[in-house]
Amino acid sequence: MSFNVGLSGLYAASKQLDVTGNNIANVATTGFKSSRAEFEDVYSATKLGTGSKVVGSGVRLANVSQQFTQGDISATGNVLDMGINGSGFFVLNNSGSLSYTRAGTFKVDKEGYVTNSDGTSRLQGYGVDNNGKIVNGVLTDLRIDTSNLAPKSTTTVSSTINLNSTSPVIDQAVATNKFDPSKSETFTKQFSTPVFDTQGNQHTMDQYMVKTGPNTWDTYTLIDDRNPDGSDPTDAATPPIASTMTFDTSGKLVSVSTPVPPTVPPTVPAPAPVISNELKITNWTPGKVKDGVWTANGAAADPAGLTIAMGSTTQFNADTARSIPVQNGYATGQITNLTIDGSGVLLANFSNYQTKPIGQLALASFTNEQGLQAVGGTSWKETYASGIPGYDAPETGSLGTIRSNSLEESNVNVTNELVDLIKAQSNYQANAKTISTQSTIMQTIIQMA
């Protein structure tokens, strides 16, 4: 019996050395989780129990458990290097077989899919719809789309404007004061805003402010120095149409009144002016001027028209000025770089200063992480003991935060492992000594026979 006890001790010490050696070997492995050998004693027993004076039968390996404690997060500078600060696992798909890992060393294959370091499995997450909205609930292969971002025509322009209440009135009844965009003395202030047509061509929209009375201002809107329909604003037959802004005695905007252009033949009775807090351009034909001749460029304005919000316009005794205008159109964009935020959203940045989400990675969680089966490659598989995985976006519930440009290092503590190595070596030597002692005793008994 003593031989068996000693042999079990040798086997246990050998396993402890194996586990410790494996931990030390993977001290530099990204996302590696250290293991711990767990032992239990052995007793021989009958159906009636072990009794009170039974000597143990040795030791056996009960389990090799992995320690899913957090590893240090170190910066790498590679945007597709990702570490999880907190709980959760990256989800990988290899031809329909899912595995789970903490090693965030990802790259892009020739088709644009985000894969693990050896390119055999694709990172899983959530895609986006045509409007750039994350579609949660269904896992898909994450793919970085490097195609150009299609242009968007301008539909809205907004800004905060103050018109100086002390500016002199320009009497447009006087012929020399009649509005002319080429003569600065016929208007009080000019504001320019870039706008875009359906093909992504940029145009300059100018608003000319003309003070016509103590609390009234006219505003003329031209695009590329032409009327929105492309006609010459200096032509007496096609002069620009002014919208009139009216302010109350406290300098707040009351209304914007825009006359309806006359029709041919004229509408009887004539339509009433449109009164609101915004200007609406519905007759814009995009074009360009070359050698003094305007021609349409083949593009169009947005079918919804172009709305200029004027509700934030005031008339105070301060300089006439405008905040930076905001408009929602843009030209064609080429992808310039990729960023990944803490919630795992992949954001593509384009040359036209637009940012578009192209996906969001998902994390998996398990009720019993210790039940996961290690399959190599710093990956694990789901088992009956681990329970089924739950999928969700990072920073949801107890799931951790994604750290882009970083990797989670191994959680192996080399100092502790070296101490365990010494203990395992001592255990091995001690168990070998019990076998040697038992052998000496048996030889003595044989010699007495």
Describe what this molecule looks like in 3D.
This protein is mainly beta and 449 residues long. The chain has helices spanning 2-25, 414-448, and strands at residues 35-42, 58-66, 73-75, 82-85, 89-94, 97-101, 107-108, 114-115, 122-126, 140-141, 156-158, 161-162, 189-196, 202-213, 216-223, 243-247, 253-258, 274-276, 278-281, 287-290, 293-296, 306-309, 313-314, 321-322, 326-327, 335-340, 345-350, 355-361, 363-365, 373-376, 379-381, 390-392, 401-404, 406-408. Strands 5, 6, 9, 10, 26, 27, 28, 29, 30, 31 and 32 form an eleven-stranded antiparallel sheet that branches. Strands 13-14-15-16-17-18 form a six-stranded antiparallel sheet, with no helix packed on it. It has a four-stranded mixed sheet with strand order 19-22-11-25, with no helix packed on it. The longest helix has 35 residues, at 414-448. The two termini are 21 Å apart.
Features:
single chain, 449 residues, mainly beta, eleven-stranded antiparallel β-sheet, six-stranded antiparallel β-sheet, 2 helices
Task: Provide the fold topology.
Blueprint: H1 2-25, E1 35-42, E2 58-66, E3 73-75, E4 82-85, E5 89-94, E6 97-101, E7 107-108, E8 114-115, E9 122-126, E10 140-141, E11 156-158, E12 161-162, E13 189-196, E14 202-213, E15 216-223, E16 243-247, E17 253-258, E18 274-276, E19 278-281, E20 287-290, E21 293-296, E22 306-309, E23 313-314, E24 321-322, E25 326-327, E26 335-340, E27 345-350, E28 355-361, E29 363-365, E30 373-376, E31 379-381, E32 390-392, E33 401-404, E34 406-408, H2 414-448
Parallel strand pairs: 11-22, 12-23
Antiparallel strand pairs: 1-2, 3-34, 4-33, 5-6, 5-9, 5-29, 6-31, 7-8, 9-10, 9-28, 11-25, 12-24, 13-14, 14-15, 15-16, 16-17, 17-18, 19-22, 20-21, 26-27, 27-28, 29-32, 30-31
Domain Flagellar hook protein FlgE/F/G-like D1: 84-121
Domain Flagellar basal-body/hook protein C-terminal: 404-448
Domain Flagellar hook protein FlgE D2: 162-330
